[in-house]
Amino acid sequence: MVIDMSSRSKQRFALAFVLMSLVFTAPARADVGKIVQNSVPEAREASTKDLAINTEVTDGPVRLQLFRSQGEGVEYSHDGKWVVYDCKHQDGYYNIHVCRPDGTQDRCLTTIDNGLPHRHAGSPTWSPSMKYIAFAAEKKVHEGGSIEAIPGFGGRSNLWVMLADGSKAWQLTDTPNFKWSRVIIPKFSPDGTKLIWAEEIRDHKNRFKFDGWAIRVADFVETPQGPQLKNIRSYEPGGPAFYETYGLSPDGKKIVFCSNCRTTGFFEQQIFVCDIDGSNMHMLSNGKKYNEHASYTPDGRHIVWMTSEGNPKHGTDWWVMDPDGSNKRRLTHFNLSGFPESCAKPVYACLAGWAPNGTEFLGCVQYGLIKQEGRIMHMSLDKDLLSKL
Fold first, then answer.
1. Which of these, 27, 124, 250, 288, is most buried using a 10 Å CB contact count?
2. Rounded distance, CA 358 to CA 294, Å?
């Protein structure tokens, strides 16, 4: 989720939340060229003209280009030859696609006959072996509507895993049926033996607290019956609070996540890391700005995250920092005027999915918060940028 607004908008959004509760081996600084956009006929048309950057534009050491005109969660495969992402189809449901890094060979994996409920499916992540893709999928039958099951909200959903070609899928969790049960953003450990995600584990009468979440860690085990999760652990390293996880450090030792456990409100979330057993928690961001969606660079030397820092009209941009929270630097200017990527209205950067070369990433920039709609952007960093930080 990405949420950062004025106090009045915060109240409105919180209420709304309650109510709906090819081989690609580019060198480090290669020209990507024009990314193919006409290969996703199923996708719903974007409701904004912002961010329609069809050829690369340069903002200092950063180059940006539109990757998909409509989409959310996105990730490179571990060999850099494929991209998996979710996007909203014309029927209103999110589905999972794969394509090449230049946008070609696009195909949908979650509309074929593979055992899925065939409602919302999103937040996809590759296993390191690239044999599997894990994701969240809306339950086939449940009370209420499907809005709360949009991948960014994760309500009425379970975790699933499918073969990378989409031919077969297995349900991994069986979440409770209380109204606010949610699962979001599964991520594999670097060695593929564990799955990490965030889950709302407690029902509450006061939905404005958002304090019923936990970090989940489980062993990912292949059995004759298919993949399963074993030995599921729950951690709340800062006590009752909201937690949203973004995976592990490249060495598999640290979980990176956001939480409001040390702030007074949901909209003042900060970035944290802790050991994989939930101990030794440290806060990396600071202040009262909104922070989310942190990911390690492939070499583990930096973390890119989104923050509203420096944006007078709200919205969030991508920044970069060292793993200990020092040396913070801004990367994009979506929410400041006078830059090639500047937008007319506030937009919200999301989780970055890094290419193995460590100089490119794909990430959604949301333009619609309530519907969790956005565009997927390709970011190319100067090969010397991170080394200079």
1. 124
2. 15
Residue type, 171: Q
pTM to 2 decimal places: 0.88
Backbone angles phi, psi at 387, to 5 degrees: -65, -25
CA distances to 19, 147, 221, 240, 303 from 161, rounded to whole Å, are 29, 22, 12, 29, 27
The sign one gets for the Cα dihedral 132, 165, 42, 90 is negative
Find out whether 207 and 180 touch, Cβ atoms under 8 Å.
Answer: yes
CATH of 7-22+43-81+188-388, one of 2.120.10, 1.10.10, 3.30.160, 3.30.310: 2.120.10
Domain parsing of the chain, residue ranges: 7-22+43-81+188-388
Instruction: Please give the structure tokens belonging to residue 181.
Output: 């049960």
| Average pLDDT of every residue of the chain | 87
Tokens matching residue 278: 């939930």
Mean predicted confidence (pLDDT) in 293-313: 94
**Is the distance from CB of 67 to CB of 350 less than 8 angstroms?**
no
